[in-house]
Amino acid sequence: MQNKDSIKNTLFIGIGLCLICAAVISVIAVGLKELQKSNAILDQQKKIVAAADLKGFYGTTESAFDSIEEKIIDIEEGLITDISTEKYDLSKELKDPSRYIALSSIEDIATIKKRENFSKVFLEYREDQLNTVILPVRGYGLWGILYGYLAISSDLNTIIGLEFYQHKETPGLGAEVDNPKWKALWRGKKIYDENGEILIKVVKGKVDNNSDMSTYEVDGLSGATLTSNGVSNLLAYWLGDSGFKKFLNNLKQENING
Ligand SMILES: Cc1cc2nc3c(=O)[nH]c(=O)nc-3n(C[C@H](O)[C@H](O)[C@H](O)COP(=O)(O)O)c2cc1C
User: Fold this and answer.
1) CB-based burial of residue 249 (10 Å sphere; 0-12 exposed, 13-18 middle, 19+ buried)?
2) Residue in 73, 223, 62, 256 with CA at minimum distance from that of residue 142
3) Which of 75, 93, 109, 222 has the smallest number of Cβ neighbours within 10 A?
4) Which residue minimizes the CA distance to atom 10 of ligand 1?
5) 3 pLDDT above the threshold of 90
6) Which residues form ligand 1's pocket by a CB distance below 6 Å?
7) Nearest CA-CA partner of 97 in 111, 81, 116
8) If you take atom 14 of ligand 1, which residue's CA is the nearest one?
9) Where are the domains of the chain?
10) What is the DSSP string of 63-96?
């Protein structure tokens, strides 16, 4: 009779178990990766709908998102392209030097180093009239890049909302960018003055509501001036000439198809 405790048997069982466990873990990891990816996409869709405050009108986040048109725009030209949105992936765009520009330190006020040539934007129409534009924005806070969406109403100058879906700021300090009370302060704020200059910013402390500038200002996050400045800088970048300003101007003139 074979000895069950032989070295050969022990090795066989040990290695066999290891192989089975490894196979189970890799199947789970691969399965979860897809789930994580689809959850991340779903989370971004929620943020887009939240920034644009569309859930109330459409009933659910899903139907609100379904009503939004996704377009790939050429940032430099400020025009909509016919590039398919399906395969668009910002991280891939930023890996191909022919598909981004490297920003000089003077240009790079949001500290993002590279700006993609093509960007995915979101447009919501009601009865064929543009109602909301939702733009992807990003820029450095204190600990890393904050990624978010800025929703602007059809006058192309009034903010509906700003939502971040990814950042590394500290809970209780910079991460207060996610606090609903702070996010509510953005609604109705104006971006540009009558000369097209970007005035929107996060101030240090509280906004003085008696000041003429209050329409362009949002309260600072207390104890988190660096994150607050990061938010001001990222808006200044993405709403400026190197960002979406040309696209917004073209939208104003309804001259958006490339
Ligand atoms: C552990 C730690 C985490 C911090 N996290 C943040 C942060 O996420 N955002 C931020 O602006 N400041 C953060 N700060 C504070 C900054 O270093 C800096 O003091 C602050 O931004 C100044 O803001 P104030 O002028 O409003 O106090 C952190 C400080 C410490 C010690």
Assistant:
1) middle
2) 223
3) 222
4) 224
5) no
6) 142, 169-170, 173-174, 222-227
7) 116
8) 224
9) 38-252
10) HHHHTEEEEEEETTTTEE----STT--HHHHTT-
Task: Say how many Å lie between the CA of residue 80 and the centre of ligand 1.
Answer: 40
CB distance 112 to 139 below 8 Å: yes
Q: Report how far ligand 1's centroid is from the alpha carbon of 202 (Å).
A: 15
Q: Kindly state the tokens that stand for 15.
A: 């290695």
Strands 114-116 and 159-166: unpaired
Strand partners for 115: 101
**Distance between start and end Cα atoms, the chain:** 81
Does residue 177 contact residue 167 with C-beta atoms inside 8 Å? yes
Task: Residue count of the chain, please give it.
Answer: 258
Mutate to test the pocket of ligand 1, among 142, 143, 203 (most ligand atoms within 8 A of CB): 142
Query: Which residue type does 213 have?
Result: M
CB-based contacts of 137: which residues, under 8 Å, 6+ apart? 147, 148, 149, 150, 162, 234, 235, 238
Tokens found for residue 41: 């996409």
Query: Closest Cα to atom 2, ligand 1: which residue?
Result: 170
224 and 169 in contact (C-beta within 8 Å)? yes
Tokens representing 89 are 């992936």
| Helix H or strand E segment including 27 | helix 7-52
What pTM was estimated for this model as a whole?
0.89
